[in-house]
Write a structure and sequence with these properties.
DNA/pantothenate-metab_flavo_C; two-stranded antiparallel ribbon; Rossmann fold; DNA/pantothenate metabolism flavoprotein C-terminal domain-containing protein; catalytic activity; alpha/beta; 2 domains; binds ligand PMT; CoaB-like_sf
């Protein structure tokens, strides 16, 4: 029997309804063609290649059809963009489904205000623009990896903006990936909105902030904006049961802010959706620790060693370890070492997953 949602409807029913009543993104058919070509290329040229769909960044919830305002969330796409690089290092081909203008693999090292690319450049005496001496080595490495991914058609970048765009894209990609069978991996790191305004209730034009802004004779007083949001149906069960290739591995993320809820919520998600792994993370420690929760009751913490933790403005280091429930469980926590460069936790997460994925494929064959 299919799992039921809180409202009693079977999961698949709600999902179908969502796709019938909300419009697909304009770019959907061109994205579908690109994805088909990408998968076909790897099926023909490297039939053993594993392919991962990485979802990344936040989703917007528009308040108007001709959108001026929208609700958004904090996700910059760091987890997704960084993980995509490590998946490429592990030999995967990567479909990177990301929020438009969020961080991208490779260019993330030189984008946005914290890593503004202009700070890496200089003007040479002869007037040429050059990369500053101290950044040459790292930039060469990044550039080589980027070229390798591009030249070998290993990275497909597909953008989305709204939560509805994201869900249409996810469904299409999962179905297009079906010929990959158990070589497909889903790594759902996007921060997907749980609430939205259905199309039939959405304002067409910009919501006016004053009574008479629309041209009437009102008082001109500003008014409250009360927004009624509906729950977005949970699509994970439909992904697992119908869209994704049979035998594929599905990994979702669970984000919490309260340490005492993290592990139990991750367990609940596994029970509800019957997928392979939930990676739990706390907002305030997500760059330094995550927990792998599997259906056999395992709670495995992965931590960046203290000496290798990069500084983070929003992070709270005292909370590291506070969400751990089953003390004494196995850790991947390489203590000690001299600080050279901050270690990215994705460099620990992704090889672990690649190993799990390989083992799983071997068990299935
Ligand atoms: O981008 P960064 O700043 O680096 O941050 C990374 C991150 C914290 C966003 C990332 O590590 C993370 O935790 N992403 C998932 C956050 C989240 O949306 O959790 P959730 O509890 O809302 O959803 C859990 C899972 O259900 C998700 O894998 C999602 O794909 C899935 N889901 C969510 C909503 C929905 N309607 N249907 C779903 O299937």
């Amino acid at each position: 029997m299919p799992p039921h949602q809180a409202n009693g409807l079977p999961a698949g029913h709600e999902a179908d309804d969502y796709f019938h009543t909300n419009p697909p993104p304009k770019a959907l058919s061109s994205h579908q063609s690109l994805a088909r070509e990408f998968i076909q290329y790897h099926l023909e040229n490297s039939p053993r290649r594993k392919v991962v769909l990485v979802t990344s960044g936040g989703t917007t919830v528009p308040l108007e059809n001709q959108t001026v305002r929208f609700i958004d969330n904090f996700s910059a796409g760091t987890r997704g963009a960084t993980s995509a690089e490590y998946f490429l290092q592990e030999g995967y081909a990567v479909i990177f489904l990301h929020r438009q203008f969020s961080l991208l693999p490779y260019s993330r090292h030189y984008s946005h205000s914290t890593n503004c690319f202009l700070d890496f450049m200089d003007e040479a005496e002869d007037g040429r623009v050059i990369v500053r001496k101290e950044y040459q080595d790292k930039m060469r490495r990044v550039l080589q990896q980027y070229h390798h991914a591009k030249d070998n058609r290993l990275l497909l970048l597909l953008p989305f903006t709204t939560v509805t765009d994201y869900l249409f894209e996810l469904r299409s990609l999962a179905v297009i990936m079906q010929p990959l069978g158990n070589r497909a991996l889903f790594y759902l790191a996007a921060a997907v909105s749980d609430f939205f305004i259905p199309r039939e209730r959405m304002e067409e034009h910009k919501i006016q902030s004053r009574d008479n802004d629309a041209g009437g004779q009102g008082s001109g007083a500003s008014r409250q904006l009360v927004v009624n949001l509906d729950p977005v149906p949970k699509f994970l069960s439909t992904l697992v049961q119908s869209w994704a290739p049979k035998g594929s591995m599905i990994v979702s993320f669970k984000l919490e802010t309260n340490p005492s809820l993290l592990v139990s919520k991750a367990e609940q998600a596994l029970k509800r959706y019957h997928h392979d792994l939930v990676i739990g993370n706390l907002l305030s420690t997500r760059k330094w620790e995550v927990v792998f929760v599997t259906s056999d009751g395992e709670e495995r913490w992965i931590r960046v060693p203290k000496a290798r933790r990069s500084k983070s403005i929003s992070g709270v280091e005292e909370l590291v370890g506070k969400a751990e429930r089953k003390h004494g469980m196995e850790h991947v926590d390489l203590e000690g070492g001299t600080v050279t460069e901050g270690m990215e936790i994705e460099s620990l997460i992704v090889p672990e997953l690649a190993l799990m994925h390989t083992k799983r494929m071997e068990q299935q064959s």
